[in-house]
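re: ur question from earlier - yeah i can do the single chain one, its not a big deal. heres the input i used so u can compare w yours
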Amino acid sequence: MNENIVHGAVSFGAAFTAGIINSVAGGGTLLTFPTLVWLGLPPIIANATSTVAIWPGGLGAMWGYRRELSRTPGRLLALVAPSLIGGIGGALLLRSTPQSAFKALVPYLILFATLLFLVREPVQRALKARAGRAGAPELAGPRGSAARAKSSGPLGGGMGHATTGWLAGAMFFQLFVALYGGYFGAGIGILMLAALSILGLDDIHQMNGLKMFFALCINGVAAVYFIYAGMVFWPDVILMAAGAVVGGYGGAGFARKMGHRFVRGAVIFIGFAMALSLFVKQ
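and the output i got, formated as tokens:
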């Protein structure tokens, strides 16, 4: 009985903290998944449980970008198809992976996701700087606006080099991102930001909104399959979903007081520490 209480308290606490982290920096999966592994869940079950439990929190984050998403060029919705196909493909691949093989992969997956999280902020700064340079001519008046309209390209919205060929390439890239997302999930945000940048988007808020939307597609279809296949541990799903929602809503103020840099540093430290400990444990 006491073990069950401790298990529940730790899983709730991890999801609560992940909710706080996601409200400021993202990367909460780097806490919830390793925690479930440490609590004794088989890695595949822990991965599926974490995906299902954390998914509802992404809805609130996407809602926060609804204004930017409303201005999204319609052709970008083509990326929904590879997101859904790759998401279910990754989930099926996880299902067919032997437990021992996935357990051996876990430290590498956590390390890879942590490295992606580490480079995300410099990439976002570079994208913002590029957006600032691209936006400067617009201040010149109607002529600048006309130039922007001329360079907006076939997809519109500042996507100057996003031709049909670029879109097809982005869809192909998104398929592999979604396969990874359905299989493991952590760190897909930076990969999608890179693809959207290649397509020519220069509004970082719109890009973050699209990233959240496509991530919800990837993780949503994977979560449905995990539930159908009986791959989740429901007591943890319920506790962690509640913890993530409470943490994301009530913990945002606390996270802001702690500061973005502190939260980001904490995620990176936890990710590297978990990966190292699992390497040693093997």
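Residues 42 and 159 are 44 Å apart (CA to CA). not sure if urs matches, ping me
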